[in-house]
Design goal:
Elements: H1 2-14, H2 26-45, H3 50-67, H4 70-80, H5 86-121, H6 124-155, H7 164-198, E1 205-209, E2 227-231, E3 247-252
Antiparallel strand pairs: 1-2, 2-3
C-alpha cells in the first residue's frame, strides 16, 4: 500500500492528468491520490481470488479517479467563473477523471497481479518478495513521474511550479530501489541461515519434520512447508548434554 501511495502521488504531483489548471493543483491531486491508492490496494487484496482483485482494482481506481476531480474542478470554477456553472465543470471533471483514473488503474492492477499470491501466502519470504516487487514497481513509477515532470517543465510558463516534481520523482525512484534491495538482502540472509541449519553448521539449531507437539499455528512461518527449525540449547557446547527435546522456532519449506 505504501508503494501504491508513493508512486501514484509522485506521478500525480508530476502532472499526469488533464492539466486544465496549468499545474497549480498538482499538490492537491498528489495528496488525494496518495490517500486513495492504498484504499484501492486494500480492497483488492481482500478479494477471494487474483482475478477478482484485478477487477476490483480497475473498477475502484477508475471510480475514485473521477471522484478525485470534483474538488479541483470546483476550485478552478470558483476562481474563474463563479458558482453558477459548477455543475458543468464538475461534469467535465468527471469525464476527465474517468479516463485518468483508468490510466492509474492499469499499473495498480499490474501491481496487484504481481503481489496478490504472495500477500495471501502470509510468510516472511513472501513478504520480502512483495517488498522487492513493490519496490521495483515504485521505482518504475518514479521514473515515469520524472519523464512527466520533465515534459511539464518545458510546457509551463511559471518556474514556481516546476522545481519540486523532478526531486519528488527522483526520491520515489530511490525509495523503490532501497525497498527492492532491502527485500532482496533480507531474503538472501534468511535463506543462507536456513541453509546453514540444514547443513548442521549451526550447532544449537536443526531442521526436522513437524510433529504433533509443535504449535504450528503460533510459529512464525518463514516459508510454506511442513518442516520446523528447532532450537536445542547447549547442543553446541561439548561440556553439557544437549536438550533431548528442543523448541520449535519457525516453519520452513520442506
Amino acid at each position: 500500500m505504501v508503494a501504491a501511495s508513493l508512486a501514484c502521488a509522485s506521478v500525480a504531483y508530476a502532472g499526469f492528468y488533464p492539466t486544465f489548471d496549468g499545474g497549480e493543483l498538482r499538490l492537491l491531486l498528489g495528496i488525494s491520490t496518495a490517500l486513495l491508492a492504498p484504499v484501492v490496494i486494500h480492497v483488492a487484496m481482500n478479494s477471494p481470488r487474483r482475478k477478482f482483485a484485478v477487477i476490483r482494482t480497475l473498477t475502484l481506481a477508475t471510480a475514485l479517479g473521477a471522484a478525485s476531480t470534483l474538488v479541483p474542478a470546483t476550485i478552478l470554477l470558483s476562481n474563474s467563473h463563479g458558482g453558477e456553472v459548477l455543475g458543468v465543470v464538475c461534469t467535465l471533471g468527471v469525464l476527465a477523471g474517468l479516463p485518468t483514473g483508468f490510466a492509474y488503474a492499469i499499473p495498480l492492477a499490474f501491481l496487484v497481479y504481481l503481489t496478490y499470491p504472495l500477500v495471501q501466502a502470509k510468510t516472511y519470504d513472501a513478504a520480502d518478495r512483495v517488498t522487492m516487487r513493490a519496490g521495483t514497481w515504485t521505482a518504475a513509477g518514479g521514473a515515469f513521474a520524472l519523464v512527466v515532470s520533465t515534459w511539464l517543465m518545458k510546457s509551463m510558463t511559471e518556474r514556481s511550479h516546476d522545481v519540486l516534481p523532478p526531486w519528488v520523482a527522483l526520491a520515489t525512484v530511490a525509495a523503490g530501489v532501497v525497498a527492492t534491495v532491502v527485500g532482496d538482502v533480507r531474503l538472501r540472509r534468511r535463506a543462507a541461515w536456513v541453509a546453514r541449519v540444514r547443513q548442521g553448521l549451526e550447532p544449537e539449531y536443526r531442521s526436522r519434520p513437524v510433529e504433533a507437539r509443535d504449535p504450528v499455528d503460533q510459529l512464525p512461518c518463514l516459508s510454506a512447508g511442513a518442516t520446523v527449525i528447532e532450537w536445542r540449547p547447549g547442543s553446541g557446547d561439548g561440556a553439557y548434554r544437549s536438550a533431548a527435546v528442543g523448541t520449535a522456532l519457525a516453519v520452513i519449506e520442506d
